[in-house]
Specification:
With 266 residues, the chain is an all-beta fold. The protein has a single domain, classed as Jelly Rolls, CATH 2.60.120.200. It contains one helix and 21 strands. The strands form three sheets. Strands 1, 2, 3, 5, 6, 7, 10, 15, 16, 17, 19 and 20 form a twelve-stranded antiparallel β-sheet that branches. A hairpin with a 6-residue loop joins strand 2 and strand 3. About 4% of the residues have low confidence.
Length: 266
């Protein structure tokens, strides 16, 4: 079974000024089947943004095999079907699964290439405002051959005040090897982890939802992006490039015996 409802097998405590948090494992996506679990995932199609202009739903760009999800960026060789020079694959849980607060862990291998921009991020399931006011959580983004990943949150406030508090940070990784990327999201703060080490945090401060819009269910996105204004030009001669996902774990959070996480299955 690819998406498993789990008993509370794992409990982690996070000490903070607002009280200790207990994380309990609720779901594991282990990619044990032979195809994408359509009850959880849908494919990301092309768009007009910098990040998705090369996205494609072509079958060979998203592969489930040997207990792994592999997302590819490739050089296009069939211009009769698609005029774009490079094509990339991505998946998301939009319309299938979303969470309001909680913890996510993803064991992933990011292969480096010139122009490669793999990302794991979250967007609101039902935004009530346009971007960036609706909020965005970038768990990780890697550029080219970097030995680190970026962590970022986007909102109307962070766009105007990127350092109050700092909207982004970096986490050192094992390049081209397996890493575990984590996100702990509570009503008070968002914390990023790489291989169990805390690498960045963003705390809620006084003010309205413009300062902390991450209070509604968000869905998960995983995509192997290529090219763009931030990452730069793609070296097509080195393609294909891939990001491999071994497993994903979703945890609910509670404090003083009261659960604050909400998991949504539309």
């Amino acid at each position: 079974m690819a998406f498993v409802l789990a008993m509370p097998l794992h409990v982690a405590f996070a000490a903070a000024a607002e009280g200790a948090v207990v994380w309990r494992l609720r779901y594991t996506e282990d990619f044990k089947g032979r195809q994408l679990n359509k009850k959880l995932w849908t494919r990301i199609d092309a768009g007009n943004s910098d990040w998705n202009r090369n996205m494609s739903t072509r079958a060979d760009l998203v592969v489930v095999k040997d207990g792994q999800l592999s997302l590819y960026g490739v050089r296009n060789t069939d211009f009769g079907e698609d005029a774009r020079r490079v094509l990339t694959g991505g998946v998301m849980t939009k319309g299938r699964f979303a969470m309001k607060y909680g913890k996510v862990e993803i064991r992933c291998k990011l292969m480096g290439q010139k122009g490669a921009w793999p990302a794991i991020w979250m967007m609101p399931e039902r935004p009530v405002e346009s971007w960036p006011h609706c909020g965005e959580i970038d768990i990780i983004e890697r550029l080219n051959f970097d030995g680190f990943v970026y962590h970022t949150v986007h909102s109307g406030w962070t766009q105007a005040h990127p350092n109050d508090p700092p909207r982004g940070g970096k986490g050192k990784i094992k390049p081209d090897d397996w890493n575990v990327f984590g996100l702990e999201w509570t009503p008070e703060r968002i914390v990023w982890l790489v291989n169990g080490k805390r690498t960045h945090s963003y705390a809620r401060k006084s003010g309205g939802p413009e300062r902390y819009p991450w209070t509604t269910p968000f869905y998960l996105m995983i995509d192997m992006q290529l090219g763009g204004g931030w990452v730069g030009e793609v070296d097509e001669s080195t393609l294909p490039v891939a990001m491999h996902v071994d497993w994903i774990k979703f945890y609910s959070g509670s404090r003083d015996g009261k659960q604050f996480s909400e998991f949504v299955r539309p």
